[in-house]
Design a protein that fits this description.
Layout: H1 14-30, H2 35-47, H3 49-62, H4 64-68, H5 70-81
Helix pairs in contact: 3-5
């Protein structure tokens, strides 16, 4: 059964808001996740929140090259090994 879930995200302007709406519409239409998958990922997210935030910031700042940098490799290694 499909349900709507809402996120509150700060957008700089209406153009950014419209672009974000399109991204979420595409993700929603592809049905990438179901509720049990998201709930199963949540404990991992809570335990590794800092590393995930650093990794996303690195990708936003440097793109794929950020993942391949020493900092990116170290973050990925910590995410893969932390329990």
């Amino acid at each position: 059964m499909f349900r709507k879930v809402f996120f509150v995200i700060d957008c700089a302007d209406e153009q950014e808001h419209a672009a974000l709406q399109e991204v979420f519409k595409e993700i929603s239409n592809e049905q990438l996740f179901n509720a049990s998958q998201v709930l199963a990922m949540y404990p991992m997210y809570k335990a590794r929140k800092n590393e995930l935030e650093q990794l996303f910031a690195l990708v936003v700042d440097k793109g794929i090259k950020g993942l391949l940098s020493m900092q990116g490799v170290n973050l990925l290694t910590r995410l893969a090994t932390k329990k």
